[in-house]
C-alpha cells in the first residue's frame, strides 16, 4: 500500500514536472517571409518563430510544423498540406515550407511546436496563416485601363495633368462569403468600394523598373461588399511611373517626367466567393468609365491640387449618375513585364504630429511648426467658403526672419492647394499622391485664426516593425538616436531614399550601403530590402556595374534617363554586394544571396576587369562622371584618393563574396574569391602602403584634379577616411592595423580632436577606433558638439540627420542653401551601428545572432549608463549597463535558443556577482575565460544581472 502510494506520488510528481516542462517552451511571433499572416506569391515561403521559456539555458532541439488547408483541420492537428513530423533541428527561422504545391488564392493555416533541451515537447503555438496571391498570369482576368489626360495639364513651369477617376457598378447576385481585391497600378491608385477607401497604405504599387516588374497588392474586402448592386471606383496618380523624378528638371535633361509611361494605369480584380460556394469576378476592362474629379494635379515632387467642388463624395457609391463619364481605354500587358506580389511592407502613416506652434506671418498667412522634421503629408480640418483656397508650402527650416526655407527644395514645387467645397462643417482633406519632407508648413489663404488642431502632420514610412531601443544618461546621445530613427523613418519609404524633400528622393546606393547595418538595428528591414535588392538587380548596367541609384529609369539609348551621366561609382555600386550581405548576416537569409548571386557575380567580374594587379591604381575610374566616382562624399578637408578607397572596397567585396559563396555551397567561387581577396590585399600593400605603414598615393597621377569632386586640393592616402576604411575592412596585417590605428588617432588630434570624414569615411570611423582599442576617442567624437559633428547639429536644433556637416553654421547660416542641403539624409546616421555594437555592445558572432557577443565599451568617457535592445530574428537581445560608484552593473537578456559571450570588465572572476551570487565552481570551470582585463562569461538564454568591481584597463 505504502509502495503504491509512493508510486502514485512519484508518478504525479513526474507528471507535474513534465507538465511544467511542457508549458515552458513555446513558439510565438509566427511569420512567413518576415510578415505576419501575409499574402504571398513565394511558392516555398520561409517560416519563422520566436521562442519563449522561463529560466535559463533553454534551447530548441526539434520542431514540428503542421500546415493545413483550413483552420478546422489545423485545430484537429491534421496537416493535409504538410506535417513536418518531428524534425531534429535548432532552426527557428528560414525554414522552408516543404508541403504540397500551393495554388493561386490558396488559404493556408499553420502552427508549430518545439522540443526543448531535455527533449520535452512544448505546447503548440497559436494558429497563424498566409494566403497565396496569383501564381501565374492566367490567374489574371483584369486588363490594364487608363486615360491619357496630359492635354489637360495647365502650362507653366510644370506639366501636371489631372487624375482620372474610374468607376463601375456590378450586381452581386447572392450573399457574399468572402472577397479579395487584387490590384496593381502603373503609377498610384486609391481604390474605393461603395464609397469606402480600401486599405490604409499609400503609394501602392511602389517604385520598380516597371518595364521588368510591377507589383500588386491583395486586400480582404469581404465586409465591403453586399448582395445587390455594388460600386467600384479608383483615382489614379502619376507617381514614380509618369510623374517627375529626381533632378531632371534642375540639370536640364530634356525629359523631366513620364520616365516609364505617359499616364497611369490600373489593373484590379475583385474575386468573390458566394455563400453557396459559387464564384464571381469583377475586373477592370473597357466596360469601366472615367471622368474628371477633385484631384486636379498630383505629383510626388510637385504636390497636389484638390478642388473639393468638382465631384461629390458619392462618385464611388451606387447610384451616382455617371452618364457623362466615358468608357476607359484598355491596354495590353507589356511583354517581359512580370506582375508579382509586393514583397515589402506598405507605406503607411506611422505617426501623427500636432502643431507645436502656429504663427501668423502675414495677411492670411501662417506658419505651423510640428517640432520634428519628417516625411509625409498634412491632414486639414477647416471650414471655408466655397471656392476659397488654401495653399500649403513645406520647409525643413526657417530663415532667421521667420520665413520658410524652400531654396533647398530646388525644383521640387512641394506645394499643395485645397479649394473648399463650402460645407457648413469643417472640411477634412489629406493629399493622396504626394509627400513632402518638412517640419514647417506655410499656409496662405486662411481668413480666420485657425484652431490649434486644424492641421495634423502625418508621418509616413514603409511600415516596418521596430527592432531597436537605445537610451543613455546623456541627452545629446538620446536625441542623436531619435534623429537617426526619424531620418530612417523619413527615408525608408518604399525604397531607401537619400532625402525626402528636394527634387531627388532617389535610392542612392552609396547612402544605402553605408547605412545598412545601422538600419537593421532600428527596424526589421528584411522584407523592405527583399524588394530593394531586387530593384538593384533590375537596375544593373549591361557592363555588370550596379548603378548609383535604384530604380534607375533608362532612356532609349540605354543611359540614365534622369541624367545621362549617372552611371556607377566605387563606394556606391558595391551596395549590390554589401546590402545583400548585411541581410544575409543579420537574418541568416540565404535566399537573398541566391536570388542576386548571378548579378553579384557579374558585378565582381566587372570590377575585376578594371583591376591592375588586383587593385585599382590611381585613375582607374577616370572615365566616369564625376571622375573617379563620388569618393568620400562631403568630407571636410583633404580629399582621400577615390581609387585607394575603391581598392579597399574591392578587397572587402571579395571577402563578403567568399563568405556568401561558401554559405550557399558555391565552393569553387568561394575559393576564387578567397584567392582574389588575398591577391588584392597584397596588391594594396604594394601600391598604397608606405614602409612606415602610412597609406599613400601617387598624387601626380591625378594631374591637377580637374573633373574630380573637390580634386583641386589634391589627394592623399594619409587621411582619417583611408585608415578608418582599411581598419574596418581588415585589409591590413595585425602590425599594419596597429600602425594605422595610431595614424588615425594622430590625424584626429591634429585636426583639433575633430572628424574630417564624408559618407564613406564616417561609417567605419568609430568602429575602426574601437577595433584598435581607441574607444575613448570614438566616444569623444560622438559626444562632440563642435563643428563638424552630429552633436553640433543637435545643439543647433536638429531633429534629424543633416546631409552635410555644414548644412547650417552658426554665424554663417545656410551656406549651401539652394544647392545640396538636405536636413533629412540618413547617411551620417551610419554611426548607429557603433552605438548598438559598441555602446550597448550587441554583436552577432554567428549569422542571425544565434551566437551573440555582449561587450559594451565602458570607460571614463562621460557616459555612466546605457540601455537598449535589438530584436533579432532569433529573439530579443537586451543589454544595459551602469557605473555605480566602484561597480559596474550589467543587465543582459539572452533569447531562448541562443547563447552569448558576455564580456565583463573585471580583474578577476572573483570580482563578479551573477544574479546576486558569486560564480560557482562548475560555472567557473565550464563558462568562464579571461582576456586581459576582461572576464568572458558563456551564457545561455535567460535574464542576468552581472555586478563587477569597476576596473579600467
Ligand atoms: C547626392 C545624393 C546622395 C549622394 C549623391 C552622390 O545628390 O543626395 O546622398 O549619394 O549625391
Automatic annotation (TrEMBL):
Q: Which residues form the Bacterial alpha-L-rhamnosidase N-terminal domain?
A: 174-350
Q: Where is the Alpha-L-rhamnosidase concanavalin-like domain?
A: 359-460
Keywords attached to this Swiss-Prot or TrEMBL record, sorted alphabetically, are: Hydrolase
Any Pfam family hit: Bac_rhamnosid_N
Q: Any idea of its EC number?
A: 3.2.1.40
What class does this enzyme belong to in the EC scheme? Answer: hydrolase
Q: Which InterPro entries match?
A: 6-hairpin_glycosidase_sf (IPR008928), 6hp_glycosidase-like_sf (IPR012341), Alpha_rhamnosid (IPR016007), Bac_rhamnosid6H (IPR035396), Bac_rhamnosid_C (IPR035398), Bac_rhamnosid_N (IPR013737), Ig-like_fold (IPR013783), Rhamnosid_concanavalin (IPR008902)
Q: Which catalysed reactions does the entry list for this protein?
A: Hydrolysis of terminal non-reducing alpha-L-rhamnose residues in alpha-L-rhamnosides
Record domain Alpha-L-rhamnosidase six-hairpin glycosidase: where: 466-839
Q: Name one GO biological process term.
A: carbohydrate metabolic process
User: Alpha-L-rhamnosidase C-terminal domain location, by residue?
Assistant: 841-904
Q: List the molecular function annotations (GO) for this entry.
A: alpha-L-rhamnosidase activity
Q: Which Gene3D superfamilies match?
A: 1.50.10.10, Galactose-binding domain-like, Immunoglobulins, Maltose phosphorylase, domain 3
The protein, known as? alpha-L-rhamnosidase
Amino acid at each position: 500500500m505504502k509502495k503504491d502510494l509512493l508510486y502514485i506520488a512519484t508518478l504525479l510528481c513526474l507528471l507535474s514536472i513534465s507538465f511544467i516542462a511542457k508549458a515552458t517552451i513555446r513558439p510565438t511571433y509566427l511569420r512567413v517571409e518576415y510578415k505576419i499572416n501575409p499574402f504571398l506569391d513565394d511558392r516555398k515561403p520561409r517560416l519563422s518563430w520566436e521562442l519563449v521559456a522561463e529560466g535559463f539555458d533553454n534551447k530548441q532541439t526539434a520542431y514540428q510544423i503542421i500546415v493545413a488547408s483550413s483552420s478546422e483541420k489545423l485545430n484537429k492537428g491534421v496537416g493535409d498540406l504538410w506535417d513536418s513530423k518531428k524534425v531534429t533541428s535548432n532552426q527557428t527561422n528560414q525554414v522552408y515550407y516543404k508541403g504540397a504545391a500551393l495554388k493561386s488564392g490558396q488559404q493556408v493555416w499553420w502552427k508549430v511546436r518545439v522540443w526543448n533541451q531535455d527533449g520535452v515537447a512544448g505546447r503548440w503555438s497559436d494558429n497563424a496563416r498566409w494566403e497565396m496571391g496569383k501564381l501565374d498570369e492566367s490567374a489574371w482576368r483584369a486588363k490594364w485601363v487608363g486615360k491619357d489626360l496630359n492635354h489637360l495639364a495647365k502650362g507653366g513651369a510644370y506639366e501636371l495633368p489631372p487624375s482620372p477617376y474610374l468607376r463601375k457598378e456590378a450586381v452581386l447576385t447572392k450573399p457574399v462569403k468572402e472577397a479579395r481585391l487584387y490590384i496593381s497600378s502603373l503609377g498610384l491608385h486609391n481604390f474605393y468600394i461603395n464609397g469606402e477607401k480600401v486599405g490604409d497604405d499609400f503609394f501602392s504599387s511602389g517604385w520598380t523598373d516597371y518595364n521588368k516588374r510591377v507589383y500588386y497588392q491583395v486586400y480582404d474586402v469581404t465586409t465591403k461588399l453586399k448582395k445587390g448592386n455594388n460600386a467600384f471606383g479608383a483615382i489614379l496618380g502619376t507617381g514614380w511611373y509618369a510623374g517627375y523624378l529626381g533632378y531632371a528638371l534642375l540639370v536640364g535633361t530634356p525629359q523631366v517626367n513620364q520616365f516609364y509611361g505617359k499616364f497611369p494605369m490600373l489593373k484590379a480584380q475583385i474575386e468573390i466567393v458566394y455563400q453557396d460556394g459559387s464564384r464571381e469576378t469583377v475586373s477592370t476592362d473597357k466596360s469601366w468609365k472615367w471622368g474628371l474629379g477633385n484631384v486636379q494635379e498630383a505629383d510626388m515632387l510637385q504636390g497636389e491640387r484638390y478642388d473639393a467642388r468638382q465631384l461629390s463624395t458619392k462618385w464611388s457609391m451606387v447610384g451616382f449618375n455617371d452618364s457623362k463619364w466615358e468608357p476607359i481605354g484598355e491596354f495590353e500587358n507589356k511583354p517581359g513585364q512580370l506582375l508579382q506580389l509586393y514583397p515589402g511592407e506598405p507605406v503607411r502613416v506611422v505617426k501623427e504630429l500636432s502643431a507645436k506652434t502656429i504663427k501668423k506671418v502675414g495677411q492670411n498667412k501662417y506658419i505651423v511648426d510640428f517640432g520634428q522634421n519628417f516625411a509625409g503629408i498634412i491632414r486639414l480640418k477647416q471650414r471655408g467658403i466655397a471656392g476659397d483656397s488654401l495653399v500649403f508650402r513645406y520647409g525643413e527650416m526657417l530663415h532667421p526672419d521667420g520665413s520658410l526655407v524652400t531654396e533647398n527644395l530646388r525644383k521640387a514645387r512641394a506645394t499643395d492647394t485645397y479649394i473648399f467645397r463650402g460645407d457648413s462643417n469643417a472640411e477634412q482633406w489629406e493629399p493622396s499622391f504626394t509627400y513632402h519632407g518638412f517640419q514647417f508648413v506655410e499656409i496662405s489663404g486662411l481668413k480666420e485664426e485657425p484652431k490649434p488642431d486644424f492641421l495634423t502632420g502625418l508621418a509616413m514610412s514603409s511600415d516596418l516593425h521596430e527592432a531597436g531601443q537605445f537610451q543613455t544618461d546623456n541627452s545629446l546621445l538620446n536625441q542623436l538616436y531619435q534623429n537617426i530613427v526619424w531620418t530612417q523613418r523619413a527615408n525608408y519609404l518604399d525604397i531607401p531614399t537619400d532625402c525626402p524633400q528636394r527634387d531627388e528622393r532617389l535610392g542612392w546606393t552609396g547612402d544605402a550601403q553605408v547605412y545598412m547595418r545601422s538600419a537593421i538595428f532600428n527596424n526589421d528591414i528584411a522584407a523592405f530590402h527583399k524588394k530593394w535588392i531586387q530593384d538593384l538587380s533590375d537596375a544593373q548596367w549591361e557592363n555588370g556595374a550596379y548603378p548609383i541609384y535604384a530604380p534607375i529609369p533608362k532612356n532609349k539609348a540605354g543611359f540614365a534617363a534622369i541624367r545621362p551621366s549617372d552611371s556607377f561609382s566605387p563606394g556606391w555600386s558595391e551596395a549590390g554586394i554589401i546590402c545583400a550581405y548585411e541581410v544575409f548576416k543579420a537574418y541568416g537569409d540565404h535566399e537573398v544571396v541566391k536570388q542576386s548571386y548571378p548579378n553579384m557575380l557579374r558585378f565582381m567580374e566587372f570590377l575585376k576587369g578594371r583591376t591592375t594587379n588586383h587593385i585599382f591604381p590611381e585613375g582607374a575610374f577616370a572615365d566616369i562622371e564625376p571622375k573617379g566616382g563620388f569618393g568620400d562624399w562631403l568630407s571636410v578637408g583633404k580629399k582621400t584618393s577615390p581609387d585607394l578607397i575603391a581598392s579597399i572596397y574591392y578587397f572587402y567585396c571579395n571577402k563578403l563574396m567568399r563568405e556568401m559563396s561558401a554559405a550557399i555551397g558555391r565552393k569553387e567561387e568561394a575559393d576564387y574569391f578567397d584567392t582574389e581577396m588575398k591577391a588584392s590585399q597584397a596588391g594594396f600593400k604594394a601600391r598604397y602602403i608606405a614602409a612606415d605603414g602610412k597609406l599613400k598615393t601617387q598624387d601626380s597621377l591625378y594631374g591637377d584634379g580637374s573633373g574630380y569632386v573637390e580634386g583641386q586640393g589634391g589627394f592623399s592616402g594619409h587621411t582619417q577616411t583611408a585608415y578608418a576604411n582599411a581598419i574596418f575592412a581588415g585589409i591590413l596585417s595585425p602590425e599594419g592595423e596597429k600602425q594605422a590605428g595610431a595614424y588615425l588617432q594622430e590625424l584626429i588630434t591634429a585636426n583639433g580632436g575633430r572628424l574630417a570624414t564624408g559618407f564613406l569615411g564616417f561609417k567605419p570611423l568609430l568602429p575602426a577606433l574601437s577595433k584598435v582599442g581607441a574607444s575613448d576617442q570614438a566616444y569623444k567624437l560622438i559626444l562632440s558638439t563642435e563643428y563638424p559633428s552630429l552633436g553640433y547639429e543637435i545643439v543647433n536644433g536638429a531633429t534629424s540627420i543633416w546631409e552635410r556637416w555644414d548644412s547650417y553654421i552658426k554665424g554663417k547660416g545656410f551656406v549651401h542653401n539652394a544647392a545640396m542641403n538636405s536636413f533629412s539624409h540618413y547617411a551620417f546616421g551610419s554611426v548607429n551601428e557603433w552605438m548598438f555594437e559598441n555602446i550597448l555592445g550587441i554583436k552577432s558572432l554567428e549569422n542571425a545572432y544565434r551566437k551573440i557577443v555582449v561587450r559594451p565599451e565602458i570607460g571614463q568617457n562621460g557616459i555612466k549608463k546605457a540601455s537598449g535592445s535589438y530584436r533579432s530574428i532569433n529573439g530579443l537581445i537586451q543589454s544595459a549597463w551602469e557605473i555605480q560608484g566602484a561597480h559596474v552593473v550589467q543587465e543582459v537578456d539572452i533569447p531562448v535558443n541562443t547563447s552569448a559571450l558576455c564580456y565583463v570588465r573585471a580583474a578577476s572572476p572573483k570580482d563578479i556577482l551573477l544574479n546576486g551570487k558569486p560564480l560557482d565552481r562548475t560555472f567557473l570551470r565550464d563558462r568562464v575565460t579571461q582576456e586581459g582585463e576582461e572576464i568572458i562569461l558563456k551564457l545561455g538564454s535567460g535574464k542576468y544581472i552581472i555586478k563587477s568591481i569597476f576596473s579600467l584597463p
